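Thread: Newbie trying to understand structure tokens

Hi all, I'm a second-year student working on a class project, and my supervisor (Dr. K.) asked me to get a predicted structure for one chain before our next meeting. I've only ever worked with sequences, so writing a 3D structure as a token string is new to me. If someone could post the tokens and maybe explain what I'm looking at, I'd be very grateful. Here's the chain:
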Amino acid sequence: MGYDITFVFRGKICTCTAYLDCGQLPVYIFIILKDQCLIEEYSDELTIKTDFHKVLPRTDDTASLVELRQAIFNALLGYHAFNKAKRAYLAESI
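---
Reply by user tm_fold:
Sure, no problem. This is what the structure looks like when written as tokens:
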């Protein structure tokens, strides 16, 4: 199931759809960007690797890509669905 996310990047309100893969750590969040200017710069898809607490580094990281991933992740932290998935995963791993 995809979650429509609104986030701020470079002072502009942007949107994307996020899909969570919570099978095991690290968790992968697959992102489909909706804003044309971001698509032109980064393509329409990107992936965030996380442990639910922070964005984990990836081999394709650039400074601006790290900034974009962090902006989306920060927005996800405020979404009930993300926090519900986090709680469920952490409860299962105990």
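A couple of things are worth pointing out once you decode it. The mean pLDDT is 91. The CA atoms of residues 3 and 81 lie 8 Å apart. Feel free to ask follow-ups in this thread.
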